[in-house]
Amino acid sequence: MGRFEGKSALVTGAASGMGRATTLAFANEGANVLAVDIDADGLATLATEAAEASGSVVTHHAAIGTCDAGHAAVAAAVEAFGGLDVLANVAGVVRSAHTVDVTEDDWNLMFSVNVSGMFWLCQAALGAFDGGGVIVNVASNAGLMGPGLFRATAHPRGGGQPDQGAGHGVRQGQQHPHQRACSGSDRNADDRHHRAAHRL
Ligand SMILES: NC(=O)c1ccc[n+]([C@@H]2O[C@H](COP(=O)([O-])OP(=O)(O)OC[C@H]3O[C@@H](n4cnc5c(N)ncnc54)[C@H](O)[C@@H]3O)[C@@H](O)[C@H]2O)c1
C-alpha cells in the first residue's frame, strides 16, 4: 500500500521539473493528484506518464496568479476527489536581470505567479481542508541570497504564506532548493543573468 493511498493532492507547476516529479511521486504512492499548469502539452505528457501509477492524475490547465484561478483549482480538486489533503505550490517563473534592467512586465509576472498564485491557493486550500492538511511551498535559496528580482519574490514565498492553519491540524513548510538541472535552471542560466552578475 502506497504512503499516500486515499489522499488527494494539488500540485502546481506539474508539467515540468520539480512539479512533475512531485506529481508522479505522489501518484506512484497511491495519491489522487490534481496537476495544475499553464502548459497544456506538458500536462498531456504527464497524464501519459502517470497512467501506470497506483494513484491517479487529473490535469487542470490554468494560469495561476489570481484569486479566481487559485480558488477554481482547489474547487476542481475537491470536485474530482471529494476533498483535499495536500497543496504543493511548485509553479514558479524566473526572470533574472540586474535591477536596472528589470521590466515592469517581468516584475508583475514574477509576483503574480510566485507570490500571488501561492497565496490564493493557500487561502483556498485552508478553506477546503477538512480537519487538517499539509501545504508545501517551493521557494528558493535565492530568497536568501539570490539576484534582486528573484530574491524579491522568493523571500515572501518562503516566509509569507498564511499561517492561520496553525492549531487546526494544518502543517506548512517551505523548501529552498539550490539551482538544479531542470528547465527553470536552464532558463536561469541565460546570458542576461550572467551579464548582470558580472556587472556587479
Ligand atoms: N530549478 C532550480 O534550480 C530551482 C532553484 C530554486 C528554486 N526553484 C523553484 O522551484 C520551482 C520549480 O522549479 P523548476 O525548475 O521545476 O521549474 P520549471 O520551469 O521546470 O517548472 C515550472 C512550471 O511552472 C509552470 N508555470 C509557470 N507559470 C505558471 C502559471 N502562471 N500557472 C501555472 N503554471 C505555471 C510552467 O509551465 C512549468 O511547468 C519554481 O518555483 C522555481 O522558482 C527552482
Walkthrough of the structure:
The chain is α/β, with parallel strands linked by helices and 200 residues long. The chain has one domain (8-199): NAD(P)-binding Rossmann-like Domain (Rossmann fold, 3-Layer(aba) Sandwich). Helix content is 46%, strand content 16%. The chain is built from eight helices and six strands, in the order βαβαβαβαβααβαα. It has helices at residues 17-28, 40-49, 67-81, 104-128, 142-145, 148-159, 183-188, 191-199, and strands at 8-12, 32-37, 56-61, 86-89, 133-138, 170-175. It has a six-stranded parallel β-sheet, sandwiched between helices. Helix 2 links the parallel strand 2 and strand 3 (56-61). It is globular, with a radius of gyration of 17 Å. Bound molecules: nicotinamide-adenine-dinucleotide (NAD). Residues 12-13, 15-19, 36-39, 42, 63-65, 90-94, 113, 138, 140, 177, 179-180, 182-185 line the site of nicotinamide-adenine-dinucleotide.
